[in-house]
Each structure stands twice: as structure tokens, then as C-alpha cells.
Amino acid sequence: MSNIIPFKKPTAAKRNPGNTLCKRGFHQWQSVPGTPFDVKTGKLVTRFRCARCGAERTQST
Ligand SMILES: [Zn+2]
Question: Measured in angstroms, how far is the CA atom of residue 23 from the centroid of ligand 1?
Fold first, then answer.
């Protein structure tokens, strides 16, 4: 006698779809107001911040 229990996958994607998109690289970038200047490289850059997870990135202009 065997009783096979079906394997259930985690439903993290359904619970938090926005964050899942972020993990897959689809952030909701919003431009960050402020001085568009990177002191490290000395170049003009545009800062972006994700409205969902708060990740930041810069884009050289
Ligand atoms: Zn994000």
C-alpha cells in the first residue's frame, strides 16, 4: 500500500508578486531628484530607485 503525497511548490510568487518581479530584474525604477553627479567617477549620472524594493542604480548620461 502506497500513499503518494503530491509535491507542493512554494507560493511565494503569488504572495508577493511585486517583489518577485524585482528579483527577476523587473524593477519599478523612478528617477531620484537631486544632484545628478557621481563623485566617484566624476561623471554626470541619473539616479533611479525602485519604488517596490528600494534598490538603487545609476545610469551614465
Ligand atoms: Zn525592485
Answer: 7
